[in-house]
Design goal:
Shape: globular
Radius of gyration: 18 Å
Order of helices and strands: EHEHEEHEHEEEEEEEEEEEEEEH
Number of helices: 5
Oligomer: single chain
Distance between the termini: 16 Å
Number of strands: 19
Strand order of the largest sheet: 3-4-5-2-1-6-7-9-10
Length: 263
Amino acid sequence: MKFSQIVLIKGAGDLASGIGHKLFQSGFPVVMTDLQHPTAIRRTVSFSSAILEKQYTIENVVAEHALHFEQVQQIIQQNKIAVITDPLCQILQQLRPHIFIEATISKKNTGIHLTDAPIVLGIGPGYTAPQDCHAVVETKRGHHLGRVYYQGSALPNTGIPGNIEGFTKERLLLSPCQGIFKTERNIADKVQQGDVIATVQNQPLVAPISGVIRGLLAHGTPVEKNMKSGDIDPRNEVSYCFTISDKARAIAGGVLEAILHLL
């Protein structure tokens, strides 16, 4: 490791994992937090999968699930990313990181403060620099993706997913009701429009378009009504399911720029 400054990332979904991967590869020790039942649909490129599988690798970077604070320290010393189940990010007080990044992509401030660490970054809308954090990184696709704001906020959330091959909202699988998500499908499966992908309380979720399942909740995940549960990629490129996206890399580049600027 080149740097002694520990990075704590709240969230371990695909965008947060792109950030964690970039910073780890750049020489920072990285700790990430997530839910007991992670809700990232792009599980194959989310370090939150370490919570389900104990250890998970993305593009040659290994993350391991830590059960308590002492294990976090051990995993860091083994040159791995440590992922801990900690929805409220209580480890912030124990770890006292030099760099704290809110990357749950909640589109609102989940309770971070400028005083949480020497460097505090907000990812996406919901944060204003320098009131809430030292910098904000843009997450909206387009000309400003990955831009760092040292004053002001990211662009407002539109609620419309990124356009892929002309499809936006049409790509998504949304839970029809509250319940337990059940599926026999896997990420990278090719499906046709109308195929049953999963059920919740015996209500089916069908593929809205044909393509490759790029994202899918794990079988047994508790869901709420209209919760994002899957993503169909019309490009039919299986390799995209297992590699960090262009969006995540752009955001991660902005994060690295902000950290080096603020150190």
